[in-house]
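User: Please go through the entry that follows and flag anything odd:
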Amino acid sequence: MYRYEELGLVNSKLVLEKAYREHYAVPALYPISVEQFNAIGDIMIEMRSPIILLASPNLQSQLEPEMLARLAQGLADRVAHAGLSIPLVLHLDHGKSFEACVKAIEGGFSSVMIDGSMLPFEENIALTKRVVEYAHERGVTVEAELGILSGKEEDGDDIGESYYTDPKKAVEFVERTGCDSLAISIGTCHGLVKMKPNPDGSLPELRYDILDYIEERLPGFPIVLHGSSNIDPQYVEMINRYGGHMEEAVGIPDEQIFKASKRAVCKINIATDGWICALANTRRILAENPAAVDSRVFTLKTRPLLKELYRHKIEIMGSANRYE
């Protein structure tokens, strides 16, 4: 069993409290390759931004919790060796069961999400309370979810139709479970189609009124947004040009993410943007180097492109230069 403190990691409590006070959001990034881990370390050091590393149970099956913990430790060590005290959180994303959360905590994760959003309200409360009690005894913070985002989650499950979070129930949920943060549904979405355009082609606004209601009644409590990638059309076009197939792709406009980060939203999840940036450039580089047998042909060239993507996210969320 690993203790996250021994790995140089922190839980999300003080990180999100600072973000709330200073009106910015912490980027929660989902790396699935070594170049993504390295690009995150590069930009943390350069921009002095806290980062929350996301890892789902599916990613744990790929890399194993111990490997993920050591990769996170490597990033924390890089930051420390640069003489900086920038917090890094290793967070379980979409843990679907009590057992999944326990496995992550024992593997060195400093924060976990218990996703009971598909359960009836009372069952979601009961499951979340159980995880909160176990995690808090070990100094680990807990994110929960209320409301359903449509689309496909990282494990490939099709969630179906979404529904907005009932803000009154959100307040009750937080008070009864003792969770440390809450992911809510206000119009973002998992997958490549984040929003359904209006009949005139414009994109709808996120439901900021839901955020405002919760913030008024739970002052200081951090809210989380999932499914918040922008889906840069240049990468969609690049993937299709070099043999891929992405028929539809609609992301969340940057200005809406910026607006949310000035409210109670303190953590914003970004997965797809990093994945399609890496995939698009890998396809392009391999097409331009058809005789390549060394994967470093594309990994070394992809890292700086990912770094610039993460820089952009940090700028939008306002998390740069928050630590020294």
In short: The first helix runs from residue 13 to 22. The longest strand covers residues 88-95. The beta strands are 26-29, 51-55, 88-95, 111-114, 141-146, 181-184, 223-225, 265-270. The chain has a mean pLDDT of 92.
